[in-house]
Design goal:
348 residues; alpha/beta; 3-stranded antiparallel β-sheet; 10 helices; 9 strands; binds 2-acetamido-2-deoxy-beta-D-glucopyranose; binds copper (II) ion
């Protein structure tokens, strides 16, 4: 059976005009001219991965949770903590604005670079197509994504976690939702791993918390995905996908965050739940689906506010995606086409 890891699509393009193709390992090959890829790595739906691939992926996440931070502080100890911390720092700037999708695409590119270069992961980046679960009549908690053996562990156990008493006192623009913290995840591969950042901007050592809530299923169905992909402009598409606080009802982005609940439900510290990556890979995939409907118009279509509050301008392809100390910044232009470096992946 042929391996799905790599789709060698561009091998021939190396001959000829493209002499300086940026490869994935050139972590600092930051150029503003899109670069051809040697090959495209396939991203797979979690359930399409073989048992061995699932195990390798979970091991790679655990590796990131072990290896030391590049820039250790008294709180931030591991590479994984650095990813969580970067999202906490940038959350207020990168949601509800034009850079929402490009910034998260960039964060996943950086994440992929970490697990490949530092944890020697060779398999596919998985996504979680929650519409497969939301279209069914079963409880979301029954999804195999939450399976303790073949997934990411299940729901929180009621009564095993309480928010810190001062949780309302740490100022943040988006408050912690106190109704989404049922309890600690007690099974699966991440049950024993303590989280050091969050909830929100708090710094508290705690278990991985979830509170799976079927109320949000209706916003994650195939119909919900279609409502986004039929939008005629990038701005309308982004709003239909991202949801609250811009829209009055939840949409796919915020719905899956709050459906999982706990750490995943928090606007700042959600990266602490390993499902964050699989959720955002799925949103990124849906953006790619939308782009591919009319590639000539949409591959480089970018609009939207530069900042949440006025005075704002419109973002352009030259807008800088800033990741702080985590990684060099990227121009929006560099992440628009996932078939060009530094992305070099495709969705299967
Ligand atoms: C889901 O899982 C629960 C507990 O494991 C079980 O009782 C229930 O029958 C399952 N099925 C549905 C339809 O949710
Ligand atoms: C699910 O979320 C809804 C909406 O926030 C809330 O009213 C409800 O109490 C939650 N259900 C559970 C079981 O937590
Ligand atoms: C899709 O859009 C229609 C029309 O705006 C709306 O009535 C419906 O509730 C939406 N469905 C979902 C699942 O978002
Ligand atoms: C390390 O982190 C500190 C605090 O966030 C920051 O000021 C500094 O620039 C970082 N140093 C490097 C080399 O990234
Ligand atoms: Cu985010």
């Amino acid at each position: 059976m042929p391996s799905l890891f790599y789709l060698i699509l561009y091998c021939c393009c190396l001959v000829g005009a493209v002499t300086a193709a940026a490869t994935f390992n050139d972590a600092h090959a930051v150029t503003t001219v899109p670069q051809k890829c040697k090959s495209l790595r396939a991203r797979l739906e979690w359930r399409a991965m073989k048992p061995r691939q699932k195990k390798d992926y979970v091991d790679a996440v655990k590796c990131l949770q072990q290896i030391p931070a590049a820039n250790k502080t008294s709180v931030i100890q591991t590479r994984f903590d650095e990813l969580v911390s970067s999202h906490i720092d940038f959350a207020d700037r990168v949601h509800s604005v034009g850079q929402f999708l490009p910034w998260h695409r960039g964060l996943l590119i950086i994440y992929e670079r970490f697990i490949r270069n530092e944890c020697h992961y060779k398999g596919p980046i998985p996504y979680w197509d929650w519409s497969k679960d939301a279209d069914r009549l079963t409880h979301m908690a029954n999804s195999s994504i939450f399976d303790p053996a073949t997934g990411f562990g299940g729901d929180g156990v009621a009564g095993t976690y309480s928010l810190p008493e001062n949780y309302t006192l740490v100022p943040s623009r988006v408050p912690i939702n106190p109704y989404a913290w049922k309890g600690c995840v007690k099974d699966g591969p991440f049950a024993a791993h303590p989280i050091v950042l969050g909830p929100g901007k708090l710094v508290t050592k705690h278990c991985l918390v979830r509170d799976i809530n079927d109320t949000y299923k209706e916003y994650l169905t195939t119909n919900a995905v279609r409502n986004a992909t039929i939008q005629p402009s990038f701005e309308l598409f982004r709003i239909e996908l991202e949801g609250r606080p811009v829209t009055p009802t939840p949409k796919m982005h915020d719905a899956a965050h709050v459906l999982v609940g706990g750490d995943m439900s928090n606007f700042y510290s959600s990266v602490a739940d390993p499902l964050f990556i699989l959720h955002h890979a799925n949103l990124d995939r849906i953006w790619w689906v939308w782009q591919q409907i009319k590639p000539a118009k949409r591959l480089y279509e970018i609009t939207g506010r530069s900042t949440v509050a006025p005075p704002y301008t419109d973002v352009t392809l030259d807008f800088d995606l800033d990741f702080g100390a985590l990684a060099p910044s990227l121009k929006i232009r560099q992440v628009m086409n996932i078939h060009e470096a530094p992305a070099c992946y495709t969705y299967v």
